[in-house]
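Schema walkthrough. Field components (list of strings):
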Amino acid sequence: DAKTTQPPSMDCAEGRAANLPCNHSTISGNEYVYWYRQIHSQGPQYIIHGLKNNETNEMASLIITEDRKSSTLILPHATLRDTAVYYCIVRVYNTDKLIFGTGTRLQVFP
Amino acid sequence: DTGVSQNPRHKITKRGQNVTFRCDPISEHNRLYWYRQTLGQGPEFLTYFQNEAQLEKSRLLSDRFSAERPKGSFSTLEIQRTEQGDSAMYLCASSLGESNTEAFFGQGTRLTVV
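Field assembly_structure (string):
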């Protein structure tokens, strides 16, 4: 079973920041938080991952709370092409399978 | 294109027929995974390989399903005696296999059993 909880859907205006929350209250100390997204009819696309420090790359920022029980994915300037289902995944250390939940469907509107 | 490649992209088959899908991972990746995704759900893990060794299989992988990676490069997923419930997107992914690396997914093979 997925170890994360996400809202089923969110809206965001184009050009604004999209903040996607994720709860993972049962996360263990050696488990990473990964984010993927899936645009309709395509394979999931890796976005970012982190353990306990905040992370930033060219696509997004990941903010993990100090107790690590929740995190937020931030798309700083959402575009229409960011419309997708976003999956937050807790990955157990040294195992490779990703346990997906049902994700958050982000709709970016003009 | 140096990403994960899956063939065919679409497959329509009659119930009871056998089908085989192919996945070509990113060349230096030694781990390869198969997932299945049905409409409205997230991908579900099926199995994965470290080089040619199949290290884990999900309970979802019934005895009608078999996956191989004979030379540690490409992989095949075969479904025998297909059923309508097998209709899904079958996704392949690969990674370097280290604990803190990401997996890259292919575009998937969409199977429709009629």
